[in-house]
Amino acid sequence: MARRLASAHGLGDDDLIISRQQLEEFQSRLYCLQAALEDVERDLERSSEPPDIAEAFAWLRSNAQPVAEIWIEPRTLERPG
What we know:
mainly alpha, 3 helices
């Protein structure tokens, strides 16, 4: 039944449905990581001293952790109990 329903809505075997909230949360965390990467690249162009590298790494790690923690599950059709 699930395959017929998915097919009727134009979804292939590799397509998933996730909530808008999950997508927005992931995109927000990913945006922060992208910005941190740009910050680190710019900072390391200015200085490659060990304290500056350590600070850049800490900044990058603090922005990567939220992305690493997110887990997105596909939505399923829940049947009434």
